């Protein structure tokens, strides 16, 4: 966090340094072009701007020249095109001068898939003799100017010419970024869409939890607010603030956690059925598998809210009033409640199970932090995410079961034939646990393990390959 | 975390390996020189020490030679100067032999800005024919010896000769560090100050919160302890442990959170007023902007403490005693409090708002972890820090407003004309929210957006450049 | 998190790209061989498989050839051996064709130290003319296939030939991994054991806490459940769920935290006694020092559980029943408890100290996250882990002392002559704090500081070296 000040000063002092520098040319003196040019200048590159009005551009740093496009292009074999796609066509006139040069396309669009082809491919069509590299489009002008790189440092690079790509990746590294090779220029489309995306992997998990949330909310509203109002004339609307959320959140957390493990079970069943791991899963399953981390983190968020809503219970006016009125009643009726050991057991057990479940849940969340998961090896990662994950699911499911306790399916708990929310929320986790229990039985586990090691049922070729060459990965 | 053992063994076994090695020379056999030399030896370099008393130095690893300075210098073109700055002058005698060699200055000082010029620049003056590179000064001997690199792995490198710098950066990378190019040798001064700094970016936020904390503490002491003692003779001193901190902390958290967003608003107003984003902000504003993350994290710390202090309320002896004495009073006076739905609403609402605000606050804190913020793109980062941040501020401010509830400005709550602390702590957040509300109105938002895209009011040059070249960054 | 989709698409589109590619040969078409081959193909390499049955292998991606081993070997000077160690012997027949080529051993074993020599060294014996590099064994086929690299991205590389190692490290980097140079081929043994390890650094801390946990559990069982049952016939078994864990956990947390700082104190005493820091510590102390982070994190986990178990106290049926029965008793006996200011002070103080201790503990935990500890310099890291750590220990110890309060050693608290658990758990932390207090006194601190800067008592050689060359590190 201390680097900003350090860097800014060093940039400033760097300007007069005298060692021989590589020259980079930037076409366009707009905001991003200037920021990138200045940054490269500060990092030791000699920078030349190309502009339509070279005389007019009020660039501040001394030592940076602004020339016409044609002149600037002659100074360097690497030209950064900091110009909007709509103005690219003037480059056709310069095509001859750009022959064999590396053109770096840094442009972004305003919408996802705005044009039929990516900007970089369009540039390649306009200047066929140049080597096009796509890069830097995920970096913001502000990040370049302020020197603080709190957001992503990743520069996605793609291009058909390997050496040009290497040159651009070297520049990115010198500027303090992390270049990521994304392959050929065809990848430019994806790279151009990337900065326009807003949490794409979170969309499905968020929509799913929103839908579940609304369903549970309406359900609770019926049971806890409308039913008492209709049948007993009670005004329970204030339940909307805490009581009802605290029924929705644990249900959601439990269901979403179970939905993290369900796709793995479906995949295992599919693999067992197909007898191979080399056929593709259906798309929805693939997408679901890739969203598991996000689903789990949303489940953790709801579990956290559930914990907080539970811990504030004794502070609530409603709860305090109810407790004291109960004491007053006992005295008035002179009828003291005796201590009930079973109740003490049940109450303590479901609380303890909940705490342990939440503790493991938090542990899973912490190990999913990128910097933590990078320090564990593959075996450890699987141990945490699979073994500890299922233990968490078991603890949380038992927590809910014990919470239900004696009154679980007693008909007195039904209102308009609707059971409590926690009964509903047990359906998915119990299904997942039962299926998992079946799958870990040796008769299913053994063939599955072999399939996952590359073995294929009914496939002569692969069997031979397996016998002959074997693989090294367990 | 498992790497230490792995590495140490591999280092040990490495000593007998026979492949051709690059030779590095280390001047000085002090603690750091030895540690660095051994580490390079373990990582496959051939190491030669230069010493004043080559015969006497009891270096353990076999295979490392200790020679006189002059002899050692001839073995390698890269010499690490592991000597205190005060003893540099002997190098002038060797100046001829050091001609054209790379000298790596790894020295630190005892105080910030101890000498007029940096040690590396001083070395460059003494040995004008050598290529000076500053590096490794942020690494500790202990970290090199133990092989555990829990502290920073960043090696800041600067120097005027690009190739020499590259050589040193390669060595740093081989030793398992992350080299950071900091530009020309002029940056050495900053790099030498760096390991002497203790959370420089945290100083202003910490002093500010300490000052606010003391102010609120004295204020609360007056209202909650001295006033009751003077007027009612009550001994409320035990409030000092929990009750008063739990009034100070939420106030601080709310104010500091608001102060995170205030500089952004001031900057926006300045930009609107000046009509350009290219003039520099005043220094205090720049510094404030750079401290926002730290301010936010301190606010989160206070919010966390507030949550903990609130959740323990029902465990406190004082609260238990008050609740039971209230029940006993109701029975004695035979005057049962009726249930008040408005109170239930207010109590549940402010608790729920507080929980949601804290939840978002924790989310903001998690996304400010470097490894998390590195995985989001710029649009996502801004979404979290700006949208979610303001939502947090709104929730926390409303939480405080609802907490005040009916008694907000009723004169009965004033003691010595002083309102409650929460009333004071609402001033800054409400101001920020009102200003932000004004700024998001289209009449201000539209010009501001254009200015931030590089547009400049009243500037012919830039306008043309904008029209002609445009920039690619939104 | 959004990268998977991005990458997969770019991989797909990459296949038709036309630029000249480096050719890599893979021996073996098993699961891992195929995954690695496909991944390299997607990242721009030209890939040739060598197989015993070249005609049969049903490889999907077009553009990848499958040849016989001999033919495939001629296509590239870099061959990845994706074959089980047991089948290596066929390579002796090809020895001539593999002369001078780089062979990359990616194999793993099923058990730690399964064979007398590492697989890579065995390969080097079989094909003496080849340059053997060990790499990629820590990567899983699944990670290669799915493109999601949530687990470790580190590829440990070792080998005797520096250039070959560099080639392999370049490939690893291109595939998106982080290559880590581990030295000569002798390190292969450790690298092969690495993916078989399951949290090796956590073993000792976990066993230690399990042993302590069992001891405390039996102790509590005796005092809290069996004693009341024998002497008063009370059934307190439900204490097993919450009450007893909430006595064990804080004791464990406090003891483990103290055990984090004990080895440092022992090391300081040893260094003072020996008068040098250059002699090795005993092995048990070395191992203990390396486990401190893990010990601290386990202590934090127990502290977290203690906090949760404490916060749910007012929700427990048992506690609610006891509180209301106490109120009922007061009314029945018409004997109201007066408010006791000392009790209020003690209760509030121990709660406040506990909260502050836990807060600092969480802070220590956060700064031990790899991505956070990488951003602080060495001085800051030591400040947090040492100063803040001791402050945490002091706060938590005081918390326990105040919790004991008046009844600390009153004989009435003894049951079967056993004091409460918290008395036991204070022994280690108090010892550590007393020893630390002695060590920071100048008469011990000054020589210790000098020793840690490299000074040696009674050693003529080092003293001279120290005087002559000095070191640069404080």
Instruction: Report the β-strand fraction of chain A as a percent range.
Output: 5-15%
Largest interface: A-C, 90 and 99 residues
| Chain-averaged pLDDT of chain A | 83
Number of strands of chain A: 8
Percent of residues in helices of chain A comes to: 55-70%
Quaternary structure classification: homotrimer
Unreliable runs of chain A:
1-19, 460-474
The main sheet of chain A comes to: 8 strands, mixed
The secondary-structure element order of chain A is HEHEEHEHEHEHEHEHHHHHHHHHHHHH
Structural class of chain A: alpha/beta
Number of helices of chain A: 20
Ends distance of chain A: 42 Å
CA radius of gyration of chain A: 31 Å
Q: Strand order across the biggest sheet of chain A?
A: 3-2-1-4-5-6-7-8
- Tertiary shape of chain A: elongated
Structure explained in plain terms:
3 copies of one chain form a homotrimer. By secondary structure, chain A is an alpha/beta fold. Chain A contains 20 helices and 8 strands. In chain A, strand 5, helix 5 and strand 6 form a beta-alpha-beta unit. The longest helix of chain A has 33 residues, at 200-232. The radius of gyration of chain A is 31 Å and the shape is elongated. Residues 1-19 and 460-474 of chain A have low confidence and may be disordered. The interface between A and C is large, with 90 and 99 residues.
